[in-house]
Structures are given as C-alpha cells and as structure tokens.
C-alpha cells in the first residue's frame, strides 16, 4: 500500500515522524517546567507482608499534574521522556524525593517502612546516579536499606557489564535492588545468580492469570519456590482479588501489592492514611481471611 500511495504516503510518514519529534521536544521542555514548578508527585502504593498482613512500605509511582493536560500517568510520558537526555533529571528528582519521604517517615515514627522507586535503564546506567544517591543518603542520614530500586529485566539486559557494576555499588551502599515485572523480559534465569537483586516482583500478568490459567499458576508457584530457595524476597504485584491474595499467601509469597490491598495514595494523604489505618488496625489484619481491602475507595491515580 505504501508503494501504491506513492509520494503522498511518504509525506504523511514524514509529517508523522516530525510530529513525534515535536512531541518529544515539547514534552522535554514541559518536563523541565514541571521540575521547576513542582508538578511531579508520588502516588504511594502500600506493600504488605503476606504472612502477617503488616505494612512493609510503599512503591513510589510517579505522577505529573500538568497545568493544561491534568493528571498524567507515567505510561503516557515516561516512554517518550525516556529517550531524552533530560530524563536523568527526572530520575534525580525521584531519588531525592524518595529520600526526603524516608526522612519524613522516620520523623513520623514509621522508620521501619521502605520506599521503592522505579528507574528506567537510562537513569540507572547514568554515571552520575550513584554519586548523587550517595550524597542524598549521606546528607539525609536515612537508613539506605529502607530504599529499594526497581529495575525491569529489560534494563538489565542492555549493557550488562555496566548494569552489574552499578548494581554492585547499590548493594555496597546498602540499597536493595528489585527486579520489576519479572517474567516478562527475555532474559534467562541465569541473571538471578549474576545480578545482586534481593527482591523479585512477579509481573501482574501472571498474578491475574493465575486462577483461570493453569500454566500461569504453575509459573507463579514455581517462581515463588525458586525465589524463596534462593533466599530472595518475592513480591506479587497486581493483586486484585481476595482469592488471588489468599492463593499467593498459601504459595508462600512474601509481599503483596495490588488494588485489592490498596490503591496508590497521594503523598499529601500519606500521613493521615498511615494514622487512620494503623489506628483501625488495618495494616495488621486478623490472620484469617481478609474481608475487605486495606484501603478502600481511593480515587484511581
Ligand atoms: P510498575 O513499576 O510495574 O508499577 C506498577 C503499576 O501497576 C502502577 O502503574 C500501578 O498503579 C499499577 N497497579 C498496581 N496495582 C495494580 C492492580 O492491582 N491492578 C492493575 N491493573 N494495576 C495495578 P503506574 O503507576 O501507571 O505505573 C506504570 C509504570 O510506569 C510502572 O510500572 C513503572 O514501570 C513506570 N514508572 C512509575 N513511576 C516511575 C518513575 O518514577 N520512574 C520511572 N522510570 N518509571 C516509573
Ligand atoms: Mg515498579
Ligand atoms: Mg511492576
Ligand atoms: Mg508492571
């Protein structure tokens, strides 16, 4: 069809390309503004220990309150920004903000909780990342073991040598490395022994298919067993139902995360949510079946 349409088609193609480039350039300068004007914030999703239902910490999910476009989810802007030179600065903001939150949690008496941040490959492989993180930790005096860095399998595939060096440096600093969306990349199991990760997050696709699909269930069960046997922490993400939660708990999954447990909480709501739910005892549920979500009816963020 492209050939038959001739010149017009190429022109169309060209304009689509330049449109894309324009969007990228525009978004990059908007992201610059966003950092200057505090338009980024975290939505914090609780993670709970599945054996005793206690809160262990939060995953920090980036949100952008854009002056014209409203609230933008990371799935919209990260894939575009990821390929800009500016994106490392967004990563610096994420690291700085997470460390600040950890300092706040400690002040509020929740110093045992962890914050997990997500870094894209370009942010993780950036030479300035480690020294910046080291400064942030030294200046804040937070316990580095409360900070977790989530990376996807695919970020680890690229430039493996350098990724390994950086992963080792994180470990030396006492920061935990988590493999996100485990099972969706193309990497082999061998990196489980090469990468010094302490936490493995099973992708929500497997969790959600688990009860209907026998193959998914076997994959989840075997993965949990493997990770447990390796002495690593296994997290299940995307838990949306009580039966998924219950099945995962029986399979000895360590930590759970998902809408059924709690939706992400806006930063501004964090302290009140912590107080409210600790008061109600929701973070520490009775160990028989859980009847209700830990946090209900939050607006979807
Ligand atoms: P992720 O790291 O795998 O984060 C989990 C995503 O699943 C989040 O989407 C979360 O809101 C969503 N989620 C949590 N529980 C459930 C559930 O029960 N069901 C379903 N259907 N979804 C659930 P979100 O916040 O839109 O983030 C999407 C992705 O964007 C993240 O996937 C992560 O890869 C990336 N991301 C988020 N924040 C950052 C960041 O600060 N930096 C970078 N580089 N990437 C980020
Ligand atoms: Mg993640
Ligand atoms: Mg994930
Ligand atoms: Mg995911």
Describe it for me?
With 301 residues, the protein is an alpha/beta fold. Helices cover 48% and strands 18% of the residues. The chain is built from 13 helices and 10 strands. The protein has helices at 2-5, 7-36, 74-81, 87-107, 121-125, 129-140, 153-157, 160-173, 191-194, 204-209, 214-229, 242-250, 270-280; strands at 40-49, 55-66, 70-72, 114-118, 147-152, 176-182, 199-202, 233-236, 255-256, 265-266. It has an 8-stranded mixed beta barrel. It is globular, with a radius of gyration of 21 Å. The model is unreliable at 1-9, 284-294 and 296-300 (pLDDT under 50). The protein binds ligand C2E and magnesium ion (MG) (3 copies). Residues 181, 203-204 line the site of one magnesium ion (MG). One magnesium ion binds at residues 181, 203-204.
Q: Tell me, briefly, the overall form.
A: globular
- Summarize the helix and strand pattern as letters: HHEEEHHEHHEHHEHEHHEHEEH
Summarize the biggest pleated sheet: 8 strands, mixed, barrel
The CA-CA distance between the termini, in Å, is: 41 Å
Instruction: Report the bound ligands by name, code or SMILES.
Output: ligand C2E, magnesium ion
- Give the low-pLDDT segments: 1-9, 284-294, 296-300
Mean pLDDT: 87
Quaternary state of this entry equals single chain
| Spatial sequence of strands, sheet with the most strands | 1-2-4-5-6-7-8-9
Tally of DSSP β-strands: 10
Structural class: alpha/beta
| Beta strand % | 15-25%
Q: Summarize the amount of helix as a percent range.
A: 40-55%
């Amino acid at each position: 069809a492209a050939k038959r349409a001739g010149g017009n088609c190429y022109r169309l193609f060209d304009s689509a390309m330049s449109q894309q480039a324009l969007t990228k350039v525009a978004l990059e300068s908007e992201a610059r503004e966003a950092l200057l004007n505090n338009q980024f914030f975290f939505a914090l999703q609780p993670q709970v220990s599945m054996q005793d239902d206690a809160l262990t910490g939060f995953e920090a999910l980036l949100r952008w309150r854009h002056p014209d476009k409203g609230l933008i989810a990371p799935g919209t802007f990260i894939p575009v920004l990821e390929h800009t030179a500016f994106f490392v600065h967004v990563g610096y903001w994420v690291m700085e903000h997470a460390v600040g939150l950890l300092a706040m949690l400690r002040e509020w008496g929740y110093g045992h909780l962890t914050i997990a941040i997500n870094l894209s490959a370009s942010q993780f492989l950036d030479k300035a990342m480690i020294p910046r993180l080291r400064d942030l930790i030294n200046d804040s005096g937070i316990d580095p073991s409360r900070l977790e860095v989530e990376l996807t399998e695919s970020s680890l595939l690229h430039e493996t040598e350098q990724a390994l060096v950086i992963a080792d440096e994180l470990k030396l600093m006492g920061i935990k490395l988590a493999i996100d969306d485990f099972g969706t990349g193309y990497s082999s199991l061998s990196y489980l022994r090469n990468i010094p990760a302490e936490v493995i997050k099973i992708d929500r696709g497997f969790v959600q298919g688990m009860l209907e699909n026998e193959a998914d269930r076997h994959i989840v069960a075997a993965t949990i067993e493997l990770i447990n046997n390796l002495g690593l922490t296994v997290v299940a993400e995307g838990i949306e139902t009580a039966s998924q939660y219950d099945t995962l708990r029986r399979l000895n999954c360590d930590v759970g995360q998902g809408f059924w447990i709690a939706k992400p909480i806006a930063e501004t709501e964090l302290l009140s949510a912590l107080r409210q739910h600790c008061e109600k005892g929701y973070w520490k549920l009775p160990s028989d079946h859980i009847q209700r979500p830990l946090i209900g009816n939050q607006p979807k963020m």
